[in-house]
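User: My advisor asked me to double-check a structure prediction for CSC1/OSCA1-like cytosolic domain-containing protein before group meeting. I don't want to rely on an old file, so could you generate it fresh from this sequence?
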Amino acid sequence: MNCNHTELEINTSNCTNTDAYAYGISIDIGWFNEWIVWEGGIAFNTVYWLLILLISFIVLHILRWKFNCRLLTERLDGLEDPPPPVERTSHWVDWLNFSIDEEAIGKDGATFLWFQYRLIQIELLRMALSIVLIIMHFHSDKLGERPNKTLRSTGLYNSGINGTHGVICSAILTVLAWLMRKHGQHRFIRALASHDVDSFSSICNRRWLMITGLPISTTVDSLLEYLMCTFESSFSAKGIQREQIVMAHDLIDAFSYYNKAEEMLAIEKDKIINNLEFTGTVFIRFDSPSEAKATKIAITRYQSNLFWKRGQLKNNQFQPSRWTVRYAPPGSDLSWIHMKKPRPMWMTMAVWLRLAIIYSIYIFMMAAPASIVRWLHLEGHGLDHGSVFWNRFVLPTLVSFFTTKLTNWVTQQDQHRRHLTVTKASLASFRSICFLEIILYLVRMMARKPLPLLLAGDFHRDDFRLECLFFPVHGSFVACCIIVNTIGGILLNHLRFDFLLSYAKKWFTFRSEEEKNVYITSYRAEYDFASNYAELVSNFALTSIFIMIFPVISLVSCVFSILRFLSDRAALTQIYPVSQIGHNLHRESINMALKFGIASPLTLLIYRRIQLGPNRNLLDPGIVAPLCLTILYLTYLIYAHFKSRGVLPKWFRRLLRIRPRNARSNEEDEEDVIDSMSNTQNEYDPVAQIREDDLCKAQV
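Assistant: Sure, here is a fresh prediction for CSC1/OSCA1-like cytosolic domain-containing protein from the sequence you gave:
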């Protein structure tokens, strides 16, 4: 780049090749060893994992043809008599136009696939622009590799930053915002990009109010008396009857009661159900949504004025300032097993500390898995065919599947925070997987030695260097990770690995052939939208980070995102039953993809800043372009955030000269909520449902 400022090369000579901690890398087997690590191992991983995928599908097809077993040919929907499959006329063109059958996979499944389709459109654009970058980088020669150029010559370090990179970044971000807006409008999701969509944020039961934060000593009579006295001017509160108040209890003992020996059931049953602890949450039913709305508004207004009335309070037993009042979610969305009384502050801090320790150990283990493998003496030794086959093929495959299951187990530990709804638990799992994977890869690439050594005390100031993020082989490493994660996810879905693992655990507990058949027939496999959304967004974020440094990664990401789409569409159609997830998970995925899009200009900015060294000239063209683009895109995200919430700060409206609009008040929050129209008996009283089921069984 032509400029008058001193341009330094980013020194990555002390950085560590991630492949140095791969399995069996020290074994020298001639040309085969050279081909495995050739150009970062992208070619080897592509061929190897595609062969595994092809062989697995051939074996699966033979088993289906030979045995015609239900578990291999039908959906795992848990139905004893599944409905006959609908005959659908299909054509090979459907595979080319990415058709999505919403009737077969449900609304949420279709929304998930449409999100993948929008990401594929972005990947196609990025691939086309990356080809331009590859040609431009390849024809430069800052690395001095001419005439024997390698894959490194296609990277940013062979040409330096120029105006083309800024133009390409701005084009990608513009198309990203436009496609995410189009996706939100198409699927009626109000997100950052589609903040003008008249949609809802959650599904609730508008005839029920859910109040949390009540004292543990609360009873139905005391709460009813307090509501009648405090809100006597509210016409809706006057209509509340005793039988319309349902106390939420800790059901952990009631659930575990069904897992005990049969002779103990009759003895323990009454004791468990009659001695349940109150959790501080109640559900109040109203005759109409308007009465529930009026009561909700009255309690909210009372809470807002409570600060000025503290001296006038006669009975502060119920502490209404600590209440949280909202419409009750559908009973199917409530996580009853996590409905417990509030924890003390020290226990809450202990849970957060436990999660931090588990996440840290996970990052330290996965940042250098070969060190753990060697510590467990799982690595083969010698040059015999068995050791080579184990180190090069079997061990990496086993570690890949183990890493997937370990990641799922680690993220499930977030359930100890006691999410009251399945929707919140899915959101927490989605965010955990996203941030864990991205942080893991960044830490692994910036560390100059295996993290177990750092944990053991061999730590120095320079063991983490930001410059190592731009180490040439790291782009190849991330590309290989995308290949392995994509093919691994496809195999886990289509080989029905979760069912096989669950069946293997139950094998030794079956007491009869009939019990085994009942378990197989009633098994229902739920598609994990949270982890699959997280995998998509994580791959998108990592590609955004490295697309300017190592544009070849966009070719890998594009090809395997298409393969992932075809696999997920087949899995949702043929394996998993129609499932429902919260609206918020779709919205959060769009928001996360938009936020991670800023990684591309930010990476250029960091690269140029390190390259300039001590020369901190902010007018350098290599800094001004990505800096302005980063600020502009960040401003758009802030603006979209406030617009999606329906309100803009006054200073922001003045800055953008936007006419003030009426901000939504608490009374208008109902516009974000759709009524579940659910009126199921005992929907919020599982104990009453248990007693009713037992009564029906006794009558039979």
